[in-house]
Design a protein that fits this description.
four-stranded mixed β-sheet, globular, alpha+beta, single chain, four-stranded antiparallel β-sheet, Immunoglobulin-like, 175 residues
């Protein structure tokens, strides 16, 4: 009789532990609630050249400079390194390209550092929900291109208002 008593106790403990584990997973965002909202990823692209005929994988170091307040719970706000970016040899046999998405990042200003064959390249980018969050590195350049798409997205609002003002007088002039 004692064996069945311990068997029942063991089953009860197992069921309780399973229920607790499932509850913990749901509390960690398994339901896809607000904790998953606002997660942003950076998209990193690298253009390089072959080294002794081979393309070498690249790991990018990503460091926060300033994090916006109210970052999502699951967003990373600490320094990290990407997985190795698998570089693929181009049709010319000399160029190599690769691309990877980062882990979820907290919105704010971030510094990206890439050890390229010619030199170490660094880049600072504002990562936001509005995007774009692209970072491009090209071997031979120690910085990345300016974040033009973000500036273009923000800039048209002000010039459009300025452009609308001259357009109004121009319409009566045509009459």
């Amino acid at each position: 009789m004692q064996v069945s008593r311990y068997g029942r106790l063991a089953r009860l403990v197992l069921v309780s532990a399973s229920a607790t584990a499932l509850g913990s997973l749901a509390a960690c965002g398994g339901g896809g609630g607000e904790s998953a909202a606002g997660l942003v990823h950076g998209q990193i692209k690298v253009a390089s050249i072959t080294q002794q005929g081979n393309c070498e994988d690249v790991i990018i170091k990503v460091s926060p400079i300033s994090i916006d307040p109210g970052a999502p719970k699951l967003a990373n706000a600490k320094e990290f390194a990407t997985l190795p970016i698998k570089m693929t040899k181009g049709a010319d046999g000399v160029s190599c390209t690769g691309e990877i998405a980062t882990i979820p990042m907290a919105p704010g200003k971030w510094k990206f550092t890439a050890p390229l064959p010619s030199d170490i390249a660094t880049c600072e980018r504002v990562i936001s929900e509005a995007g774009p969050n692209d970072v491009s590195f090209k071997d031979g350049e120690t910085t990345c291109p300016q974040q033009k798409p973000a500036e273009a997205a923000a800039a048209p609002a002000a010039p459009a208002a300025d452009a609308a003002a001259p357009a109004a007088p121009a319409a009566p002039a045509k009459q």
